[in-house]
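3.2 Worked example (two chains)
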Amino acid sequence: MADATPKSPLSFSIFRAVWIANMASSFGGLIQSVGASWLMTSLTPSSQMVALVQASTALPILLLSLWSGAVADNLDRRRVMLAAQGFMLLVSVTLAIFAFAGWITPWLLLGFTFLIGCGAALNGPAWQASVGDMVPRATLPGAVALNSMGFNIARSLGPAIGGAIVAAAGAAAAFVVNAASYIGLIAVLLRWEPPRNERTLPREPLGHAMAAGVRYVTMSPTIRVVLIRALLFGIGASAIPAMMPLVARDVIVGDSLTYGLLLGAFGIGAVGGGLMVRRLRDRMSVESIVRTATAAMVIGSAVTGLSGTMLLTVPALALGGAGWVLALSTFNVTVQLSTPRWVVARALSLYQMAAFGGMAGGSALFGTIADVQGVQITLLVAAGLLALTILIGMVIPLPAARDLNLALREWTEPETAVSVDDRSGPIVVTIEYRIAPEDITRFLNVMHERRRIRRRDGARHWTLLRDLGERELWIERYHVATWLDYVRHNQRRTHEDAQNTRDILALHQGPAPPTVHRMIERQTTRLPDMREVTPRELADPMTDPARQS
């Protein structure tokens, strides 16, 4: 009997190669982060400026993720990742040069970290959406958990290595190591040949694509709840990494090596959390996993705030790291499994905006609190906020994980008696249903879901009409801007959506399939009667009816 257990994501060579190269790049990024955070402590005594080092990296994800998600859904994701990696390599080299020359100021350092964050914002949606191109769907949760675990393996050792590099050779050396770390991933991406999906439609303009992504997420209840919870979690969870340089310097009274060891403890716990993801998903609901992870963060933040010794702080940070990965990887997997491929990068980008926007805002908030109340009080406040999110989860719980069939359904563009092209429009569509009076309540319920699906996929002005002359006749009506938008709208229907269509047809008592009218809006105007126009007038452009209209 064949083993039904999904294969390990690492058994797929391309995922394995990119995962290893990406982990090496993560090592460099964390070494750079240690160098930047510790350099800031030597440039200024302000706790807020130190906290802003993390905020300056997270802020671009808030600002640019939706745009980069639209780019990743519309362009070759491999090329998008190559562009992002090349940009971060260039910025890191420039940062190292400035550091060696002694030209760095606090605000200039924040500017460089902001630019590196911009590269990460461009890279993130393309990389996460590409995982689905590297492994089968059944293996996707394990691949997402491995990504988190790989980053946190780097987090376990990278900060300690970074602290040693900073202590031995200065922050500039850490920036050089980060610049070199991009080269391996660039080389792997250059060799990868991802599967090519033949495009049957032109690419969406980026503005339209961004609007479509926002519309899809806001009209998808599952993803909407994940974003709210990720935002709230990100605010409270940001305190530990934001305050960690200050914990090392002011609470434990250590040096850059101490800071590296604290980050390493957080990373070791995160690796443990990554290893537990698959087992916990088999035994616990999504909501239970996130509550457990948040509780771990509460304990980790509170103990770190109350402790002044490495003996208690190290295990507390390890527990917090485990909770960090468990929650974020669960949010990520839930979004990916709830989104079809055509919009997955935009959905992930909005998830990143929520999570990292919360972290950016939380880092700035806790930096301000720390300047007034101190680091330890700040961590206790963060623990209280995280505990509050557990209570909020009882009001808006995460939906149970389901294996949705989100493959797109095949749809054939209909023939039209009137010639149309992609820009023809506006298009008005009506569908006629005949519903028995005793089935009206059920029909209204399924049409409520139909309305959500239509609007989610781009329909405008959706209405349901009942004919006053025929009691059984109901008409569904909606608009789309152009014929191309109508084609896109229908090609975005998934097999999961087909259940709604089956429910409607089960209630329909008229001809099968229901009568569909596709119409194009036209404005009325006063044109000359062509029977009264002479050949000479037709030749004169001033009497051309088309010009006069």
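3.2.1 Second chain
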Amino acid sequence: MDFKYDIIVVGAGHAGCEAAHIAAHLGVKTVLITMDMTKMAQMSCNPAMGGIAKGQIIREIDAMGGMSGKVTDRTMIQFRMLNRSKGPAMWSPRAQCDRVLFSREWRRVLENTDNLHIWQDLATELIIEDKKVKGVITAFGTRFTADYVVLTNGTFLNGVMHVGFETQSGGRSGDASAYGLSEQLKKHGFTVDRMKTGTSARVDGRSINFDAMAEQKGDMEGRCFSYSHDKVDIRDEKSCYITYTNQNVHEILKGGLEYSPLYTGRIKGVGPRYCPSIETKIVTFEGKELHQLFIEPEGWGTNEFYINGFSSSLPLEVQVEALKKVPGLENIVIHRPGYAIEYDFFQPTQLKNTLETKYIDGLFFAGQINGTTGYEEAAAQGLIAGANAALACKGEEQIILGRDQAYIGVLIDDLITKGVDEPYRMFTSRAEYRILLRQDNADERLTRLAYGKGLAGADSLTRLEEKESMVAELITYLDERSVSPSEINTFLESKETSVIHQKVKARTIASRPQIFLEDLLNQLDDSKTLTCFLSPRRREITESAEIIIKYSGYISREKGVAEKIRKLDKLKIPEDIDYSELASISTEGRQKLKRIKPATIGQATRISGVSSSDISILIMYLGR
């Protein structure tokens, strides 16, 4: 065999799978090295994709030629659009998936991707010459050479799992840790820190009393993640269930805190603030009488369920005793306990905005080794790192997404500019341009860019143009169509909104908050001639048009603000600038600028500790 490649991707989690697929798709010879080919894109925690802000990320990945959305659609057992009661900037798709099928489908995709080879082994050492990566050496002593390497090691670098006082080396239950890379990179100047995450017990569904819980069914319409699908028909859809902890549960958990590795100091890594363990919840929110738990099915061919909200590293007997006090779980039988895991990560301020490291040329980081948490955040980084490694290999301009272009842009900018002191999780509140970064328009924002770079195919561009054409036709119709009082007032009264006394344009009616565009179109007979009316994409088109009509003022205002900020991101800062010469800048400002080395003035403005006066001095200096 020839072990010379253009790109090496280490790790086949969500980041590694996206990185390997997109790099090979771009035509460069790629190898994906993984410890276990049967666990590609393994859902190590809950069996779901998407959620608040995370669903937007999956839509963006799909718009850019990634596979997470398509794999989700092919394996989902339930779909829900979260936050429908709020504005469209907050709508977030989420899907429960068959965990085994999800991993199997990713493997099928990768095994049938041209230019991609998969190698099962453990990467233990990087080949580095003159601050340039040259390849990877594995545990079997196999030497792979390449000018670009993408590390996506997840929680495996020096991973240690905790259940009470019991500890075990491993990157995940049933999988070994990876050693060597952290120690090597530390010698090359990288800052290596520790983080902690965890997961909950898995339980046998046959031992659950679902009658004592609230059933949560999925949506019946709009069920898909990928823009390439009109809808997904889910066979034998599975429900989730909701139950709650209580004071009896909390008392048992409190009694076990003396055995908790979190509260005895044995775990040093910082855990996720927004997805805390159950023991952290009862300590942090001591006065709260109950906590919501979601009982989530793991798939079609299994009785296994995941308890979302009950992550724990307490001793097994404490976990079981507490679970048996939860309504519906009184006779619970578990398959495996919850556990915490500590692992190495690299402070992401050591990365460029392309996700290439600042210290080693050709070396990219993606996923949890950058201090993030979540499948979606990892997949997004993998897509960008893999694409940029391939583009660099081909001598082409790399992709840098702005904060007004994508949640992925917000994610990467936050990481490289602010760094992390706890596992980073994406929320809609992190994006200042939420009304621009909606889940419905990721294709409009990103597909043309992706097509121009070779990431997205011609079929994606065709579907985008078809969508835009139908939305434009519908809005033009509403702008030109007049409706009379006799034609519409009965309908308006039924919607409890004021009647009209003279003819008005249909768009005026559609802009009312009480009116759904779909209902309005059903009242107008001539709307049946519109292209979208007979299209299988009708729901998608009317929804997009309705958002544009109802929120046009907000959208225009936000675009104006974004354009002003974008000008600062076009002001480049030379890489060799010596901040120590800028005595007028505050000491903290100089230290932060020297450490992070922002690429643009815009990025510099987002560094904590760099004041507006520091920015003014920096701009004047660059002007000179």
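3.3 Remarks
The chain is about 35% helix and 20% strand.
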